[in-house]
Amino acid sequence: MKYVRLFTVFLLVIVGIVPVAAGQNAQPDHHYWTAAQVQHWEGAATVHSEDVRPLWMALNAIEREYGWVIDYEDPIYSLETESTVSHNAQWESLHAGKPSRLPAGTSFSSKYPEDSRKSISASQRQSVIEKIVADFNASPNPGHFEVHQAGPNRVHVIGYSRSAKGVRRSVLDTPVTLSPGTMSGMEALNKLVQALSEASGTQVVLGAIAWNPVARARVELKGVSVPARAILTDIADSANVELMWDFLYDINSNSYFLSLRPRSVVATDESGQPLLKNMFRSPVQ
After folding, report:
1. Which end of the chain has fewer CB atoms surrounding its CB within 10 Å, N or C?
2. DSSP 7
3. Of the candidates 38, 95, 111, 126, which has an alpha carbon nearest to the alpha carbon of residue 252?
């Protein structure tokens, strides 16, 4: 549990998530702004990131630049070929002789078309995200990702691993069944991670959650077997703000950390400092 708390703090800092009520804004850590940046050119834009998960960080920059809802899912990274040793004093003090490991990503850039400065039509959103993901898949960074349209305003970016038999595998593809009924978003979320852990054989725990929007949401579970991703989408769509998830794989503990954060865009405070402004639901485009 100590490691879970440490990782949750990492998520709070790196993504700028705080468990706030809808309408409040987050002041993220400096690394959040510097790890990935979007630059605008005539008729095009470039996103560049420097992180062990460079696609995740690049998509974070895209989300806050345009206010898009993009769900991100890590694959199960290979310990031998897709990870690197990273010094972590807390981990090493608890696991003598077992070094801490992180995904072996480094940096990544993608150039994509843009109608005008900071403007991309809804019809072009899917193709822009597909272009960024295709450029990443062609890079030497670990992981292979696919883009799936999940609704008028939601896109999934899914990292796939291959099992020993060569079958594509994503933990959120796992079918789960939750007892039918109407409950709060937090109750549904807790039931989901427990059922998913049991059904998939991979531990899933909650990371940083936008607590108030999720706790106030009401979710109706139908009690049928569906992929875990479908239930998670229902939970995210039930809140009064648009929520997106980060599903990050921790190599050290062979587990996933699931976080939910609100759709947000870059704004400035009264002193001119950047902050993230949480957004209420947008109309279907």
Report:
1. N
2. H
3. 95
CA dihedral 99, 105, 107, 111 (to 10 degrees): -160
Instruction: Choose the most confident range, by mean pLDDT, from 7-11, 13-17, 85-89, 119-123.
Output: 85-89
Within 13 Å, how many C-alpha atoms sit on residue 64's CB side?
27
Report the predicted TM-score, pTM, of the whole model to 2 decimal places.
Answer: 0.84
180 alpha-carbon distance from chain centroid: 27
Q: Nearest Cα to 176, choosing from 99, 240, 246, 228? A: 228
Beta strand 101-103 with 83-85 is antiparallel
CB neighbours of residue 284 within 10 Å: 8
139-149 in b/e burial notation, b at 16+ Cβ within 10 A? bebbbebbbee
Biggest alpha carbon distance in the chain? 57
CB 73 within 8 A of CB 170: yes
Give the distance, in angstroms, between the CA of residue 231 and the centroid of all CA atoms in the same chain.
16
**Residues 146-169: pLDDT tens digits?**
999 998 889 999 999 866 566 678
Residue type, 100: S
Q: Where are the domains of the chain?
A: 2-277
Helix count (H) and strand count (E) of the chain? 8, 19
Model confidence over 227-276: pLDDT tens digits?
Answer: 999 999 999 999 988 999 999 999 999 999 999 999 877 666 677 666 66
